[in-house]
Amino acid sequence: MGLTFAKSVRFGAVRFNFSGSGIGMSVGVPGLRVGTGPRGAYISGGAGGFRYRSSLSGRTTRRQALAATTQPLESSATQAPQPNVVATTEHDTTCVLQLTDSNSDGLLLSINEQRKKSSTWPVAVAIAVVVYFWFSSLIGAESGVWRILLAVVLMSVVAWLYWRDSMQKLTVLFFDPDSAAKADFEAICDAARSAGSSKMVKAISSTSRYADFKYSAGASQGLKFSGATLKLGQVPGVKANIDVPILQAGRTTLAFYPDRILAFQGKAVGAILYERLQAVAQRTQFVETGSVPSDATVVGRTWKYVNKSGGPDRRFKDNREYPLCAYHQLNMATSEGLDIRLMISKDGGFDSLAGAVRVMSAANRGTVRA
């Protein structure tokens, strides 16, 4: 598949293109452009559904081995009461800049530099407010027309600065995959859309092991959750010619593009090659202490305090019965330290996504497709 990235700034008919390989300039009208860049001159045009461009773009691939393991959870889980916890493992603790060598990757270097640029429009807002009240005090309360005119001018200046700041931080990605790569990517999009439609989507921020399951509704370990979403769209500051699956889990956001996965944490951006990502989907039984989602499958019942036979411990007066739900979990890991874990209420809801990621990984390694 082909990938180009650029930041473009247009001044009338002239457009400047900033990319990892240098700076280019083009001029033209709709349907025909002539330009020059780091790889020489080119001409491009198009009409209707036909498009033509003469270029000398090369194509490179990166092949690396995957060496990550993800341990499955025990058969049941519940949120952890602290006195019963003997050990806790935190997830999603790796900085995304450690996921790849950003200094040797032109795309990441460009995105990280652009996202670090400071914005001028907030300062302009403060100045505009001061100017407005200062000018209003000079002209008096009777000049309403001048007040409105000044407000329009100041808001226009702020709006222009906001647009300029956005363009300076914007990265544009263009993808033109072949038919096989397009089918693999569409499979990931369909699977992400299906999993994201689950009534409950959560990120697992930590896993705790219990000392005694009798005080944890029969569960051997507990989970601490953070918010999560899984949808198709665009990441702020990065514009692509296609919508991509976006997974927001805790402090990390993963955007699944046709050639790689970009990982975002604040202003920092890293990248993950599909061939280095291990995605494991598994069914897990969860002791639900809250309301049961409508798409969840209840597979049994348990008690807040259980005895050795699994029945209620009669020593506790406030002993309540909880539903035992069959939820589905997705663990994603790399040898660089990525550890993202998700849970949804739809039983089997992550099977398609994990399978699609494995197919993409195999395709990027050049192995036989599943």
Q: Strand portion, in percent?
A: 35-45%
Radius of gyration: 27 Å
Q: Could you give the order of the helices and strands?
A: EEEEEEEEHHHEHEEEEEEEEEEEH
Q: Tell me the domain tally.
A: 3
Extract low-pLDDT stretches. Answer: 1-6, 55-76
Largest sheet: 8 strands, mixed
Number of H/I helices: 5
Strands of the widest sheet, in order across it, are 6-5-4-3-2-1-9-12
Judged by helices, strands and strand pairing, the structural class is alpha+beta
Overall description:
There is one protein chain. The protein is of the alpha+beta class and 370 residues long. The relative contact order is 0.17. It has three domains: 2-53, no CATH class; 76-107 and 177-365, no CATH class; 121-168, no CATH class. The longest helix has 25 residues, at 144-168. It contains five helices and 20 strands. The protein has an eight-stranded mixed beta sheet, with helices on one face. The protein is extended.
Short description:
This protein has 370 residues and is of the alpha+beta class. It contains five helices and 20 strands. The protein has an eight-stranded mixed beta sheet with strand order 6-5-4-3-2-1-9-12, covered by helices on one side. A six-stranded mixed beta barrel has the order 7-11-10-20-19-17.
Structure keywords:
single chain, 370 residues, alpha+beta, eight-stranded mixed sheet, six-stranded mixed β-barrel
